[in-house]
Amino acid sequence: MKTTLAILAAGLMLGTAGATYAQDAFSIVYIGKNTGNPYFDSITGGFVDACVEIGCQFEFVAPATAEATSQIPFIEAQIQRGVDVIAIAPNSPDALNQVLDSAKAAGILVMTVNGDLVGNEEHRDASILPVDFTKTGPNQVELAGSLIGYEGEIAILSATTEAPDQNTWIAAMNDTLANDPKYANMKLVATVYGDDQPEKSTAEMEALLANYPNLKAVIAPTTVGIAAAAQVVQSRGIADQVAVTGLGLPSEMRDFIKDGTVEAFQLWSPYNEGVLAAYFAKGVLDGSIKNEVGETFEVPNLGTITIDPNNMMNTQAELTTFNAENIDDFDF
Amino acid sequence: MSAAETSPPANVAGRESAPPRPLWHLVLVRPETLTLVLLILGVIVASRLSPYFLDIGYILRSFALSAEIALVALVLTMVIIAGEIDLSPAANMALSACIFAWAQASGVPIPLAVLLGLLAGLAMGGVNAFFVIVMQLPSIIVTIGTLILYRGLAQILAGDRSIRIAEGFIGVDRILVLGVPLPVVVFVLAAIVLALVLGGTIFGRQIYQIGTNEVAARHAGIRSRRIKLILFLMIGVVAAIAGIMTASRLGSVRYDLALGKELEMVLMAMLGGTYIFGGRGTIPGTFLAAWLLVVVSTGMTVANLLPAIQMTVLGILLIVSIIATNFIYSRTQR
């Protein structure tokens, strides 16, 4: 018992000492949705390279699962570590509100990177998204339409039924298909969910082909879904009947593009999100960037960035389309 | 608490009785002692891993994140000692919290909404008790079923959206009592009360007897069905309390609240030396195990260790403690 008391007493002293540690270079931590997600390697790469340029200590941490509250202990830990900047890809639009408030109260710059607290924007300082997500749905419909001559049955293979980003895009796709006369001859026959698991996505794709023999195109706005769909089309050799498109990683889709299974797909550059986040954080911390709507600043290779309403920033205006001509220029 | 008190005198069979165990033996050779040793080791290792760990305020704040789960684990310990198990409390937390949140969002005054949530928890405990006690079904099967059922009902009620909690009810973990977050205070008080009930009352002694040998306990006039009913109702209500506390801490409720946390509850009970087949275990054991789990996972998180390493360490801890528990019980009780 005496030992415990001694340890506790030592702890109190250490705890107060820890708070006065001096920080040299500023420290930035990125909390991903979960570990083992290759998408985040690319964002992390952007942070790492930018930090080499501008001088910051960067660390990536993530919980084992993308469950809504699993990031809370990680945020508490970063507050305790006294980092200067927390960047996070939030697993929940609102379960993190309270702990992010604690982080802000501790003087930490809190920003969401690659995902936002929709409806709870006041609980973070700024948000960095790759593109204007309201354009993603229409962009995807246009790409699919261009592949099938704007005519025929199409289907959507999504992630989980709850995935907020995908649901936003799907709603916009439905809207575009219904209201834009350009797409009047395209008919959305089904929206299915592969839960971002390769096996389930493959099974859902097989089911689509079986149920809708006249299917002309499948839009999979998720990297797992498009790879699974392309795999099915490749192994059946029906690339000339069914066009697969959506959002994919160039590294995963390269072979499908090369052998003609997939003609074109889209995405943004997650790498640039990390770069922008690091430059923005440095600017805000040293006072050269004011975190105010309308403020503009320069980021090498990204050009002029404008802070949009709700303190949002995009790394690029429209989705990048990847095809046989440019696929070799990208390695993420 | 040792089974020696309940077994008939060994001399009747003409054998010599074993010599009484010396006091130091009784105190030291117990599963809880191992938990305490691991806890102290955990604190030392964690403070070596990161200079930011040893801060009482931080450890208490971190414990507040698990206090709801730990609170339920205390009652679960009693259920397991009685020879049953309940895997549905985490789902119960979600459904009670959803009912509470839904009620207050549709205009019901907060105290009434809390009462609704608690009643829902009680009812869920009652459903479990009905199937286990009246229908005589194994509690592990019943509560796996109700785990899925309660979670499903929560999803039907809340959908994929989250329900906001009224601003005034948010932040139970921000309320400090002498510097300690309220959920931690609730947990500590509950541990003291339940330890007294389990260790110092006839009701408590009867729980051990049911778990050791239910048929013998019934022949001895113990109303085992009634005691089990009380335990299932208790864990139902406590799970509802935990769910509502979680709702207050997070500020919003979704159907996936406390998803998968039933395993953490069982883990706390097992780490604290509760015997999975019933009859043995203590509240102080689970109490210490809850702190052990928080110290270990917080220590690794603040040191920015990968989750894969964290899960490996937790798995090893559990296996070590189960081996130790079985070894100690087989040595001291047979």
UniProtKB/TrEMBL annotation, chain A:
A molecular function (GO) term: carbohydrate binding
Alphabetical UniProt keywords: Signal
InterPro entries: Bact_Solute-Bind_Prot2 (IPR050555), Peripla_BP_I (IPR028082), SBP_2_dom (IPR025997)
Residue ranges constituting the Periplasmic binding protein domain according to the UniProt record: 28-287
Protein name stated in the entry: Rhamnose transport system substrate-binding protein
Gene3D superfamilies per UniProt: 3.40.50.2300
Organism superkingdom: Bacteria
Span of the signal peptide: 1-22
Compartments it resides in: Periplasm
Keyword Signal tagged: yes
Main localization category: periplasm
TrEMBL record, chain B:
Membrane protein topology class: Multi-pass membrane protein
Primary location class: membrane
Pfam families to which the protein is assigned, alphabetical: BPD_transp_2
Any one GO cellular component localisation term in the record: plasma membrane
Keyword Membrane: yes
MF (Gene Ontology): transmembrane transporter activity
Subcellular localization: Cell membrane
Keywords: Cell inner membrane, Cell membrane, Membrane, Transmembrane, Transmembrane helix, Transport
Positions of transmembrane segments: 23-46, 58-82, 94-122, 129-150, 184-208, 229-247, 259-278, 285-303, 309-329
PANTHER family for the chain: ABC TRANSPORTER PERMEASE PROTEIN YPHD-RELATED-RELATED, AUTOINDUCER 2 IMPORT SYSTEM PERMEASE PROTEIN LSRD
Subunit composition and interactions: The complex is composed of two ATP-binding proteins (LsrA), two transmembrane proteins (LsrC and LsrD) and a solute-binding protein (LsrB).
Known function: Part of the ABC transporter complex LsrABCD involved in autoinducer 2 (AI-2) import. Probably responsible for the translocation of the substrate across the membrane.
This protein's name: Autoinducer 2 import system permease protein LsrD
Organism, scientific name: Devosia enhydra
